[in-house]
Amino acid sequence: MQSRSSGGIYDSTRNIIYINYHYMGKIKWIQDIDWKSKLIDLLIVIIGITIAFQLNNFNEANKAKTKESVYLKSFSEENSKNEASLTEALEFAQKTKNDIDSLKQTLLSKNYSSEEVKNLSVSMMSLSDFHPSTVTMENITESGDFELIGDFEYREKLIDVYNAYKTTSQLEAILADYVNEYVTPFFFENIRLRDFTFLQNNFIDNPVFETIVIGYDALLTQKINGYKENLEKLKGLNKL
User: What letter does residue 112 receive in the DSSP assignment?
Assistant: First the structure.
């Protein structure tokens, strides 16, 4: 019994010595690590990643800023041309309006000469056309880059102006359809378009002609008002 007890104590003591030796070795190994150097290495890695991330963000911001500048320049050039074109179309439409006003008054007064009516009637065959360039808006919309425009007021005015372009085009189309449906057929029946001589001398007494002139005048007035409203918005945009 004593022999077994002594052997057990010996084994336990040996195990304890081994464990102590084993862990003391690990502790010594841990103590031998240069923790300051390791910490510096870790900090270098963290700082490197942070700097790389910030540089990437900086580069992306620069790319976005460059894109914005390109779009703004393109919008400016596009809408400067649109303003000049719209101004020209408005002036032509107003000149036509003056002729139509004179024609309308002449017909209503019943005091007119055939030559005067003929000269004024020609104005109804000439239409002003405003064809705005919308390439920049189409490109920025399709690319999904519209949010790059940082100035919120400018973005709102852009949307307003380009929507006004659509309205103006619709008003032009309404008057053009009216001319094609009523003015042109009536002229084909009553006027030789080659030299605008009358095929029927009494057509100016026809109430239909008077109605056509009045209808044309109303649609032309609507179109001119659309031009003016569009031009006012466009000038406001180009001042920004």
Answer: -
Closest Cα partner for 97 from 180, 229, 213? 213
Question: What distance in Å separates the CA atoms of residue 56 and residue 53, rounded to the nearest whole number?
Answer: 5
In a domain, 26, yes or no: no
Give the distance from CA 206 to its chain's centroid: 48
What are 171's two structure tokens? 């008003």
Q: Which residues have CB under 8 Å from 127's CB, separation 6+?
A: 172, 175, 176, 179
Tokens representing 35? 């923790």
One digit per residue, pLDDT tens: the chain, 240 residues? 444 444 555 455 554 444 444 555 555 545 555 667 767 777 878 887 887 777 666 666 678 788 999 999 999 999 999 999 999 999 999 999 999 999 988 888 877 666 777 778 888 988 999 999 999 999 999 999 999 998 999 999 999 999 999 999 999 999 999 999 999 999 888 877 777 677 776 777 788 888 999 999 999 999 999 999 999 999 999 998
Total of domains in the chain: 1
* Backbone dihedral angles phi then psi of residue 178, each to the nearest 5 degrees: -65, -45
30 falls within a domain:
no
In a domain, 200, yes or no: yes
Structural domain containing residue 182:
68-239
Position 148 in a domain: yes
CB 216 within 8 A of CB 179: yes
pTM above 0.85, yes or no: no
